[in-house]
Write a structure and sequence with these properties.
With 226 residues, the chain is an alpha/beta fold. The protein has 5 helices and 10 strands; from the N terminus they run E-H-E-H-H-E-H-E-H-E-E-E-E-E-E.
């Protein structure tokens, strides 16, 4: 019942450094931090002076996002076991790059608040790089669009879970971290079919009541967004 091939579904290319940018702002979560490190190494090779004009906001791979959590200390952030996913892009690795600023967080909401604050004072010529799960990218892009960043100033690479944010078209609530084709709305309780129709404005996929004509009769619920 998923509607595939809808053009609104985002497609992300691998990140590449924009050496024409004057300033660089990077957001990463989990495995996405590996992509950011790749870009930093490209900048270091092509225009090493750009690193001193680069700010990076990270949620390290070892952190599970926590509600109402704040910024973590650098010592705690570097505690990932060797060989863990993203372990070649730990905060200590970023610190060694000579950046203008590096901050680590344990939850998306706090990171995005800091991102919004940085955009308030961003200068012309800033390039934005976002890497991580699609839901993380979508929330960052939503804010970027509010600040009228154009497509030439934004780059994104999807890495990690494909779990979706789902917007209930009936009550307008958003259900987070959805991994199944059918999900119960966190607000109105409707059983929603998770469609491929994606809204950049809402940073979410549309959810439509799946049992409107036959209440309580649901298709098989399958885990499809891993």
């Amino acid at each position: 019942m998923l509607v595939t091939g809808i053009k609104s579904k985002p497609v992300y290319a691998p990140l590449r450094a924009d050496t024409g940018g004057r300033y660089h702002l990077m957001l990463g979560k989990g495995m996405g931090n590996v992509a950011l490190m790749r870009v930093l190494r490209e900048l270091s090779s092509a225009t090493p002076q750009a690193l001193a004009r680069t700010r990076v906001l990270l949620i390290p791979a070892e952190f599970t996002p926590l509600t109402n959590a704040g910024t973590e200390s650098m010592g705690a952030a570097a505690a990932a076991p060797a060989g863990a996913a993203g372990s070649d892009a730990r905060p200590d690795d970023f610190s060694a790059m000579g950046l203008e600023e590096l901050r680590t967080f344990t939850d998306v909401a706090t990171l995005l608040r800091e991102f919004r604050s940085l955009l308030d004072t961003a200068l012309m010529g800033t390039r934005l790089y976002v890497a991580g799960p699609e839901s993380f990218i979508g929330l960052a892009m939503k804010i970027a669009l509010e600040f009228d960043l154009n497509k030439d100033e934004i780059r994104a690479e999807e890495l990690g879970s494909s779990a979706r944010r789902v917007y209930c078209i009936h009550c307008r609530a958003t259900t987070e971290d959805v991994r199944t084709n059918i999900v119960r709305c966190v607000d109105c309780g409707s059983w929603l079919l998770v469609r491929d129709h994606y809204s950049r404005r809402l940073a979410a996929y549309m959810g439509v009541m799946v049992d409107a004509e036959a209440p309580g009769e649901l298709p098989e619920i399958k885990e499809v967004f891993l």
